[in-house]
Here is the input.
Amino acid sequence: MDNWVLKRAILTPERTAVYDGETRYTFGEVFDEAQRLGAVLDRFGAFKTQNVAMVSNNNVRGYLLAVTLLLYGKTVVWLNKRLTNDELAGQMRDAGAACCLKDDSLPENLLGGIRVNSSNKKAAHLTKSVGDADVSGDDGFRIVGFDEIFAKADDFKLGGTGTDLAGSQKTSRNPVSVYRSFASEPASSSPSEVSAVKNSFSDNGVDPIVSAPSIPREFDDDQVVSIMFTSGSTGAPKGIQQTVRNHFTSATSVALNLGTSPTDEWLCAVPIFHISGYSIILRGLIFDVAVRLMDHFEASEMERILTNEPISWVSVVPTMLKELVPEHEKRIAVVAGSADGSNPGLPDSSSGSGVSATGTGSDISSDSDAPVPLPANFGYSPAFKGFILGGEKSDLKLLKRCHALGMIVVRSYGMTETCSQIVGTSTGDGARKLLASGKPYFTTSLKLADETDEILIKTDALTPGYLNRPGIFEAKKTADGWYRTGDVGHIDDDGYLYVDGRLDNMMISGGEHVFPEEVERVYAECPGIDGIAVTAEPDEKWGEVPVAYVVCKEAGTGTSQGVGAGTGSGAGAGTGKPPASRQGKPKGSKMEVSASLTAQWREFGRGNLAHYKVPKRFYRVDSLPCTSTGKVRRFLLGKS
Here is the structure.
């Protein structure tokens, strides 16, 4: 298919592509800027290899560089800014990336200290100390800062045809002229590429005339657009290759489920280096949707944006939604005329009555005494359509509060291997299916394995495999081509999927299957527990039994042990700033809670779970061992 960046610049050059609250670029302007940035990156040697690493916050510069790599057919290797230098170096080596583009707004010590190799000023490049190695030149990683890249781009004037921007010496080729030039390329040239007029760098360093790199007119369906590494929650991170076909199928699936309009704007507060954020950038290009960037998540600021700006959709994880709900309640109360922030007229969503825990039929009953919810998306901008909720855990009490407030929440299920969501609910499902992940998208085939109920899928959104890990991905497929997701679920009579947990987390206690995720969802509503992770311990009688590691309030106080420990439900992916105590190993030694508190919590469990699912012991910890994206590293539970 045609190059997405080039095609979008031809179709709707005047439409807004990206906006961060201050700076706005149209698709035509993005194309112009990408050509200048491409010339700079080519000069720095970034295009010598196919794979180019990048680490960035959510900002317009990061967006522009990501689109530039896409325009020139390069593969972006997204790096997680929360990893250690050694981890980042390992991923760059795995991807074969010789160059990394670094956002200068990130900490200076990320990827080491910058220095310039001045032995050849004309070909000078930035180098850094990466991990334990001090690398430079062609033998190491070339770390190029955003400041340097954009400063050079401001100085450059591209050779070739094009129109000067008003008041600027910067020029670029018109997208239509680029597209047409394929027909007039010499026979010796590649039919899928066009080259700009070749010039040389000027020696005076002022307004140099530079050569524009070749822009591929077409993308191959199997071309790898991006590489993202798994979080490492079950072992060493694996590089997931995501192709043109994968991303296009994912974007099409979302559009078919939610619908799309030229007036849509998608708020992106989840990191662009995760699939949840990067997929929003690509949807914008494919479906002519504006991307509104937030540099980090802050509930009050998001509430303001959703109220005052024409946002259509926003992707969130449970911890983000948990902060947004009280913020919205507070503002609605003020709108309703309560000066002190309380509002007796708001529906009471705290009650647990009328809720089905079976995952079949309606999740909220039609009891006539149930509170009447507020109108859909009450208090938000008229343009707002709803929240797209991903992540591992969802708190039923939280979802009920959203329903009572009229907040439209679309649940979804997907993974990095499928370029984001492949299953989802619709805006009309409302309270009928609060805990459901939804129905398989039009491009998704899904079934459950006969003996284990593992979720099996077929979709063109599925990665072709892991980077440099031959055989591992193929081993996850059945003989007839179904991909084993590792998740276990059930499907109700209406065709809605419910994800029960991970197959490799499942324990067998006395012959009964226990999923830690189910237990954690229930205990998320238990008073006094701020965070919980469940795993198995050996037991002479039952083989193994569930035990819980909890972050909880100290007895007799209102303070919490392990500040910010949360529940581990993708919090890092949502907020962009997870506390250090939430990563790596648990902080502090575990300590079994008192007999009285254990009895209290076990009684709570027996009222909401089968008796064999109730944790036998509870250990108090300062924090839970989570990855940078908030997933619990269960294999570290119980280890000091």
User: Anything to note?
Assistant: The two ends are 52 Å apart (CA to CA). The chain has a mean pLDDT of 81.
